[in-house]
Amino acid sequence: MDKADYPPDFRCPISMEVMKDPVTILTGVSYERKNIEKWFDTYNKKTCPATMQRLQSLDMTPNHTLKRLILAWQNRLVTSSSSPSHPSINHDEMVSLFSTLESSPFKVTSLRKIRSIVELGDDTRSDFIRSGGVEAVVQILVNQTVVDNSDFVSFRACEEALGLLHLLPLSEEDKTFQLLSKPEPMKSIAIVLQRGSAEARLYAITVFRQIAKTDIGWNLLLQDQGMDLFKSLLELIYDEIGSKASSCALEVLIEILASSKKSRLMAIEAGAVCVLIELLPDSNRSKCEKMLLLIKLMCECAEGRMALVEHGLGIPAVSKKLLHVSDSATKLGVKIFWLMSTFHPTERVLEEMLIYGAVKKLVALIHLDGRSSTKYKVLNMFKLHGNSWRRHPCFPCDLKDYLGCPE
Fold this sequence. Notes:
three-stranded antiparallel sheet, mainly alpha, single chain, elongated
């Protein structure tokens, strides 16, 4: 391909040759290093050659993003077919936008233009990835949050960057995943989850859900974000209970809590048990199962069991879901009551299980055919507390003849 076919932003404004070592000066314009050095040093100029603005500083910053884009373009030419067609207008515009993205004061506008091109279809999406777009946009995401997250315009650029990235494939083999799952981008996504608009929070939690499906570790992010991460997830679950964002947040929370006891303790401290108990009564089947799983995970800790007991609706809410939602929900409910009655068998716990109908439903489970871990847990509960329940004045008389558990 003739050099005339290269995007204009790949050429040095001084020599008009394709740049090999691009650097950016104070005005935001990029030049080939040797050419701009000659302009400053040999010709003793203190202006920008392209704009003729007088410069307060002659500092030069390597433009690594532009260099990567030029190399990606060149590699694309090498690997193209033997009779390649001219690149599309969309490709030229997209690459041109990449090259000026880092230095441009209009990042939000540029990112929106790139996104409009990427949304045209699979071909433009693949072209975006091949041309180095992921690296350029992830760099914007990180720079606008970690480096400077106090400026409104900078943060809007970060939200736009995440909105673009969430459109891309995110399996473990994909370049987007490999870049976003690194510590700094993960931190940036967490910051958007905490501070972003409703739309940006949806982008953030959607990306986190995809990442959560892999074996990625959460420890570094938890160390960095701590309680703020759990509070932002719980806010999303509570505020957007009927939305896709809430469902994604539940899935992410499950993966995080399943990863370590420390994460469960942090979630409990952030108020997760209370939030889930309040939402449980009106939840649909899918969300009910997720919430019960989360409650079960937290009840594996003494602090979680205590939080469930101290919430006035804890035992009634779980009891109501037994036998009324699905087999999975019933199994999770039984596990919760088994944990409570085995490791926290206070008089209040046992009495509330009886008063709010949990014991009556557990009796029904005893008489199911076959063996299962659920039935074993129910039998175990009656071995431990059957006599105590039978002696209680609230124990239903009609159940005494059907309580076929050992004394």
